Amino acid sequence: MDKLNKEQIRNLLPHREPMLLIDELYNIKKLSSATATVYVKKNSFFVQGHFPENPVMPGVLIVESFGQAAAALTALGLDKSTYENKLVFLMGVEKARFRNPVIPDCKLTLQIEAIRSHGKVWKYKGEAFVDDKKMADAVWSATIVDKK
Hints:
The protein has 148 residues and is of the alpha+beta class. It has three helices and seven strands; from the N terminus they run βαββααββββ. It has a single domain (3-146), classed as Thiol Ester Dehydrase, Chain A (Roll), CATH 3.10.129.10. A hairpin with a 2-residue loop joins β5 (106-118) and β6 (121-130). The longest helix is centred in the middle third of the chain and has 19 residues, at 59-77.
């Protein structure tokens, strides 16, 4: 599969609106890397309170977007029985840098890469851009666990 739309992503992830943040996943290299799009809009749920006069996408939601893109990439590459009835939980964020504020209305592009995996634990890195300007980058780890 070369490109996933929001509905196809919804079929891979347990997230639902308003917390399903990624809109597309493309440039997919199985279990290796992908690019995701997040359309940050003036009516996004976080804008009303962060900050009403000067809206900015919270850094934690940028990290959450990285995690969702990585979870979709991983689920897409694994056998369905491996992730069916499972959840992917963020384990740690080793590095996160927020270089520029992400201001609505924009297209946030996430470039993510799986660095390594060991059993059910995965490590990733990512960079976020608006146009060609780097907005953030991070290194994080996640694990696949049974739904309870």
